Amino acid sequence: MHLPKKCSAFRMVLSALLLVALLQLLYLSFLSKLHGKQQRYSYSELFGGSGPGSVAAHAEKNARKERLRYSLSTGGIFDHSGQYRVYKNMVQSDFANKPASNVLTLATHTSINNLHHLEDLVERWRNPLSVAIFAHGQDVKFATALVYALGVLCPRLQALVDFHLVCLSGETASFPEEDHHHFAGLGDCAAVFARLQAHRDKYKNYAIGADVSYPNNLLRNVARGGTEASYVLVIDIDMMPAADLHRQFLEMIAGRRPDPDQVFVLPAFEIRHTRKIPATKAELVRLYQVGEVRPFYEELCPRCQAPSNYSQWVNSHVRDTLGVLEVAYTLTWVDPWEPFYIGPSNVPLYDENFKQYGFNRISQACELHVAGFKFSVLSSAFLVHRGFKIQGEFHAKKDEENNRNRLLFRSFKEALKTKYPNSARRC
User: Fold this and answer.
1) Strand, coil or helix: 112
2) What is the predicted pLDDT for the residue at 40?
């Protein structure tokens, strides 16, 4: 007797469920079209298509695209060992067209999983940078695509940063226009750095892959060679210089006669991860006095940085409070000091036989000493590495690589005697 009513209620419930399902399908279809539209917009933003923007803006994107296409079409050049392929100036900054006005460039190197550090470094430096990137395997395509996106979507990088790519000689970089999946969701600069952040834990330190060596000194030389600046500061990409260093250094050298045999040392420190990177010497000294900042490599190799004479630097004020940069004191190099410094363009290149961990920077500092350079420590300039360097955080083959490079360093020192026969200095 109640069966027709039950059937009617069932039909109503079924109709409601069907209506909900239909609305969900329509909503998903709308989202898919919206996502596709956003992706087409992002793609046109990167490759100068018919998206929004002025004619001049599209012309500039097309010019950047063609410069990248040409750079990659050359196939790059091989390094002297024949093990690596180098694409110099893969993506060039606007500043590259004004070499006469470039007095000081920051040169740095990185693997693709550490490129995310560039965001903070550019924000702090705000002047010309030259960045050499090492990529291997599938990361070659990823690096090419993401570096191109940085050059197009990040105005400050577009203005200031020159990118160079290094890969194994058997690998080649290709134009990324067809690699749509690499550009998914890249609508602005923040999205590109978020993608790089997600890539940061792909491997640990130099543990890139079996039989793949990170060519740190080759990368340093490529970054140095990518600028025509009179002076270059070479650092690792996870280090941060003092704020306003560029302006202060230019003011300092403006009133002095250039000395081609002088380099300007920046004492290097480490800071706890939870602490904000100090901008000035006064901020750094306060953190240093309470143990939140310590000398770079204090736990791993205290002798490698101790010759900088941290206590003398901390207590030498000169005219720091006035924002004036000066030479606080001058030192003679001693083994095993490996200082970071601003040097003139004529300083010897890094020896590219040193790869992976150990002796890659000390070998170059040693050569500077034998070649007759003097090391002048700057009064208020410094570098800070985020995080304390501690035992056990390195890749498994660190000690093996260090021992191999120690043997290489011995033969390197012997070769310096032949290279500089008139020098009485040894290291």
Assistant:
1) helix
2) 44
